[in-house]
Amino acid sequence: WLPKAHVEAPIAGSMVLAAVLLKLGGYGIIRMTPTNISTALIYPTIAMATWGIIMTGLTCLRKTDLKALIAYSSVGHMGLVASATLIQTPWSTSGAVILMVAHGLTSSMLFCLANMLYERTSTRMLIAMRGMQKAMPLMTSYWLIASLTNLALPPTINLIGEIQIMTTLFNWSPLTIMMTATGAAITAIYSLQMFMTSQQGHLTKDSKEVYPAQTRELLIMILHALPILLLTLDSELIN
């Protein structure tokens, strides 16, 4: 239901859902796991969460709806968070919190960028948005920041959280590295594909009259990009 809720919600709802409500779910798992979840349930739950990372990534590779692609990407990242919180070690919990904060900023930024394109093209189809770098060159830089942060490019805060989670999962069970590493590779592929398809190429006929970014839109992007940059420089700010 989560990707469908993301896609059908207005932009403010999608941003709040990705940045706040999903993190409340992660917080609930962290608080409730030590007392209310038996060990017998942890193993299948982690197995489903890690397998879901790959499944959502493969789904993103075939998505043509930009907002649906970002929604499924959000689900894949939360699979990492869910599996880390269930292990309940200090390192895994720290990695889950870091990734939740980083994902909240990145996913909200991507949804906002997708809505800016939708307002100008009246479509969410990736193929109809190509060539936006020529029409909105400044917004392309924010697309690049969001896409590279989403794929956990070093030394972004997303990478710190994912490395911590992957390390704790590997210590818990070495088999999980196959799932997490494959999921990370697929995430890099569809994130770059999303950026290249929407920003590169020739403008379509319907996109000739696209107007440039407005001041309020640039302000929203700065308010997303600045915390990502500050947390990348000093991840201790989360604590």
Automatic annotation (TrEMBL):
<keyword id="KW-0249">Electron transport</keyword>
<feature type="transmembrane region" description="Helical">
    <location>
        <begin position="97"/>
        <end position="118"/>
    </location>
</feature>
<protein>
    <recommendedName>
        <fullName>NADH-ubiquinone oxidoreductase chain 4</fullName>
        <ecNumber>7.1.1.2</ecNumber>
    </recommendedName>
</protein>
<dbReference type="Pfam" id="PF00361">
    <property type="entry name" value="Proton_antipo_M"/>
</dbReference>
<keyword id="KW-0830">Ubiquinone</keyword>
<dbReference type="GO" id="GO:0015990">
    <property type="term" value="P:electron transport coupled proton transport"/>
</dbReference>
<dbReference type="GO" id="GO:0003954">
    <property type="term" value="F:NADH dehydrogenase activity"/>
</dbReference>
<feature type="transmembrane region" description="Helical">
    <location>
        <begin position="12"/>
        <end position="30"/>
    </location>
</feature>
<keyword id="KW-0496">Mitochondrion</keyword>
<feature type="transmembrane region" description="Helical">
    <location>
        <begin position="139"/>
        <end position="157"/>
    </location>
</feature>
<comment type="similarity">
    <text>Belongs to the complex I subunit 4 family.</text>
</comment>
<keyword id="KW-0520">NAD</keyword>
<dbReference type="GO" id="GO:0048039">
    <property type="term" value="F:ubiquinone binding"/>
</dbReference>
<dbReference type="GO" id="GO:0008137">
    <property type="term" value="F:NADH dehydrogenase (ubiquinone) activity"/>
</dbReference>
<comment type="function">
    <text>Core subunit of the mitochondrial membrane respiratory chain NADH dehydrogenase (Complex I) that is believed to belong to the minimal assembly required for catalysis. Complex I functions in the transfer of electrons from NADH to the respiratory chain. The immediate electron acceptor for the enzyme is believed to be ubiquinone.</text>
</comment>
<feature type="transmembrane region" description="Helical">
    <location>
        <begin position="68"/>
        <end position="91"/>
    </location>
</feature>
<keyword id="KW-1278">Translocase</keyword>
<keyword id="KW-1133">Transmembrane helix</keyword>
<feature type="domain" description="NADH:quinone oxidoreductase/Mrp antiporter transmembrane">
    <location>
        <begin position="1"/>
        <end position="187"/>
    </location>
</feature>
<comment type="function">
    <text>Core subunit of the mitochondrial membrane respiratory chain NADH dehydrogenase (Complex I) which catalyzes electron transfer from NADH through the respiratory chain, using ubiquinone as an electron acceptor. Essential for the catalytic activity and assembly of complex I.</text>
</comment>
<keyword id="KW-0472">Membrane</keyword>
<dbReference type="InterPro" id="IPR001750">
    <property type="entry name" value="ND/Mrp_TM"/>
</dbReference>
<dbReference type="GO" id="GO:0042773">
    <property type="term" value="P:ATP synthesis coupled electron transport"/>
</dbReference>
<dbReference type="GO" id="GO:0031966">
    <property type="term" value="C:mitochondrial membrane"/>
</dbReference>
<feature type="transmembrane region" description="Helical">
    <location>
        <begin position="42"/>
        <end position="61"/>
    </location>
</feature>
<keyword id="KW-0813">Transport</keyword>
<keyword id="KW-0812">Transmembrane</keyword>
<dbReference type="InterPro" id="IPR003918">
    <property type="entry name" value="NADH_UbQ_OxRdtase"/>
</dbReference>
<keyword id="KW-0679">Respiratory chain</keyword>
<feature type="transmembrane region" description="Helical">
    <location>
        <begin position="177"/>
        <end position="197"/>
    </location>
</feature>
